[in-house]
Write a structure and sequence with these properties.
Two copies of one chain form a homodimer. The first copy, chain A, contains five helices and five strands. The first copy, chain A, has 158 residues and is α/β, with parallel strands linked by helices. Chain A has a five-stranded mixed β-sheet with strand order 3-2-1-4-5. In chain A, α1 crosses α2 and α3 packs across α5. Chain A is globular. The two termini of chain A are 13 Å apart. The mean pLDDT of chain A is 93. At the A-B interface, α1 and α2 of A face α1 and α2 of B.
């Protein structure tokens, strides 16, 4: 079972690929698609879309895990993130990849056992769970791995 | 000069294609891409994306006109609309179609001369400007034509 976690954003889309073998998780690969501000929004979206397609082709995940729509932000941020999320979901649909969603609260509880965990605590747990030498950078990458780990725990419980 | 106006939405994405010849505008074609609620979000986005690609292929516009990110809404709506807007902008980028944006205020002023115009007034003016027999339905289609007309006026002024 291979899980691709994605944390969408127009400037940075974090991604992390996790493999479950028996009860062991390993991080297969992870990174961040970055787009610079001086490109038009449509070109930035095209880069994100092509980036995710390439990652799906390379990592061959069985499922794509992404955060639920979030509501604790302003409309402008939500619209900008929504655009990035849209092209990522499109790539999943075109690759016939099932999509699973988790709320930020579910992710924090799954990874740290605590719904109010801070970014640093999530990062530390991701490092431990995935036997990494350091906490992945930037935060978007760690967040993507955290979403993938959440799906891995949820899958194991089933 | 052929202008494609688009009013993005997950359930209904209105579109309208306008032709400018000398000082005359004609509506070339218009309609609405509808997706039903019982499909997954990613499949709905795929239908919108394929729909817009097909319209670009058929209508061969020189420019795509779309509303600016709007801020007077809640974050949930903004995120949902953002996803649809994302796949439409992606289609434009892939077809190397320039994108131009207008605020709802610019659209109302361009079409009716009045920034607080109601939907009905916008619809009446669109019917008159484009020599249509009736106001196009649903509202999303009229809104898409209104965005295209706004770009047509702005283009004529230049």
């Amino acid at each position: 079972m291979q899980i691709l976690g994605v944390d969408p954003g127009i400037g940075r889309t974090g991604w992390g690929s996790i493999k479950i073998q028996s009860s062991h998780f390993t991080s297969h690969n992870f990174g961040c698609i970055e787009t610079v501000k001086d490109l038009s929004i449509e070109v930035r979206l095209e880069r994100i879309y092509q980036g995710i397609l390439a990652i799906i082709n390379t990592e061959k995940p069985d499922v794509l895990a992404i955060e639920e729509l979030f509501f604790n932000t302003n409309a402008k941020t939500a619209m900008v993130v929504g655009q990035a999320r849209g092209v990522i979901l499109l790539a999943a649909a075109q690759k016939q990849l099932p999509v699973t969603v988790y709320t930020p609260l579910q992710v924090k509880i799954a990874v740290t056992g605590y719904g109010r965990a801070e970014k640093r605590q999530v990062g530390q747990m991701i490092k431990t769970i995935l036997h990494l030498e350091t906490i992945p950078k930037p935060d978007d990458t760690t967040d993507a791995l955290a979403i993938a780990v959440t799906h891995a725990f949820s899958y194991k419980m089933k």
